């Protein structure tokens, strides 16, 4: 029988250490909605999403109430829209109409975000892919809860540098299109290498074509819980440190597994995966940077940070893998800047640079995330940063992503406020040397060799 | 068996257990186990109850107990047992 100390421990995690289930994400395939008539297509998309997801929020709230665990977000991911809209959309404006349909139905069912306004172009772009990508600035400024992602590379195919160059421009245009809201549109746009098909986290969630008709994916969180557990083992050696992280990750993940199974049973939708990510929020004590500090670096970014992050990421996986029957998605520690108070402090203290963040992404998911940069940063420079991050993912056979926010009208030293879970961010300096000639070459970077690993 | 964990946290006063037990008895909810401890100066009580005999919905019981807690000046939470089981039992 459960004893009181176990009950108190669980409830302290929830009440004092910000343990929560970050998201229940319902993946919905839209492949059966395809039609060459845009009106018919939009109707079908609306109806299918509405019928599948109408009980999602209510069910999530019920589970939350019964187990006493907050479920912060309920989200929907759909099949990449470039595939769905290809037959019906003859222009970027046509694609924007689909985005508006997604926005409308997402608000109707009450979810926080809907992801999948996406194109997968790791080897090349179809006309539909190109039109969708070109529509992103318009689509993200005309909608509130739609998230967009573009996969521009993979370990198997290499990197589509035409798409990278285009995305440099699109990120900038999205910033321009939403400049009245401090370029918030860019917070809903992510560029991927090796994008997973079952990621429940935004902005990068989409429902891959390898997935079933509908599926429940759950993202857990709990940086605060890990940090508190580590406070109890200050000064102990790495063995004790790693064991503590593992045990904590196990407990956190078990809660996610329970919530996922319940959601799956109640909604009659199969359970897909648990995403074992440490996802921070701007709330005090809910920070991955604070864990790194607890492990022993003065600020995130100090020497030792990459090693600390590597061990953290690995132990979270080791603990989490046993706790869940299916693990997938991004599964790793997130290191967004604006969404993590400890990261913000590190930037403000001068400890953390864009280059150090890039190094840190080599050992954790997911990439350069929620980083505000000066609004006047050149398109090609953004493309260069994207290319660097994609190369890390391609060579290391891992998912990497870039979510940069060039804040129009603001420069280094200023801050930008996004609000809510997105937090605020100091604008970080970007290397000013040019990569124009590199980015403008055009074509693809070939896939890497898969042997001779050194 | 439909097990729920009820926790009561707050300043110790006369009659907390009596008030909670009266409500449970009136609602046909059977108490399987009670334990209590002091954590950082606060009174912590945990009850394991079986809700299969009651015709009240889980939400109703949870809301009623929450309201009762406010009346007494403590925090009362109802949570299904599975969350503790999954976290603490392999």
Would you give an account of this structure?
The complex is a heterodimer of chains A (454) and B (90). With 454 residues, chain A is an alpha/beta fold. Chain A contains 15 helices and 13 strands. In chain A, strands 1, 2, 3, 4, 5, 6, 7, 8, 9, 10 and 13 form an 11-stranded mixed β-sheet that branches. Chain A has a two-stranded antiparallel ribbon with strand order 11-12. The mean pLDDT of chain A is 94. The longest helix of chain B has 15 residues, at 58-72. With 90 residues, chain B is of the alpha+beta class. Classes of the chains: A alpha/beta (454), B alpha+beta (90). The A-B interface holds A 1-11, 62, 65-69, 251, 254-255, 257-258 and B 5, 7, 9, 33, 35-37, 39, 44, 46, 48, 58-59, 62, 77-88.
Task: Give structural attributes.
heterodimer; A: 454 residues; alpha/beta; Anaerobic Ribonucleotide-triphosphate Reductase Large Chain; 11-stranded mixed β-sheet; 15 helices; globular; B: 90 residues; alpha+beta; 4 strands
The CATH architecture of the largest domain in chain A: Alpha-Beta Barrel
Can you give the helix content of chain A as a percent range?
Answer: 40-55%
What characterizes the major β-sheet of chain A?
11 strands, mixed
- Spatial extent as radius of gyration of chain A: 21 Å
Query: What is the oligomer described by this structure?
Result: heterodimer
Terminal Cα separation of chain A, in Å? 51 Å
Helical segment count of chain A:
15
Total domains of chain A: 2
Distance between the termini of chain B: 21 Å
Q: The biggest beta sheet of chain B, please?
A: 4 strands, antiparallel
Order of helices and strands of chain B: EHEEHEH
- The overall strand count of chain B is 4
General shape of chain A: globular
User: Based on DSSP secondary structure assignment, what is the total number of beta strands of chain A?
Assistant: 13
Rg of chain B, please?
13 Å
Spatial order of the strands in the main sheet of chain B? 2-3-1-4
Total count of helical runs of at least 4 residues of chain B: 3
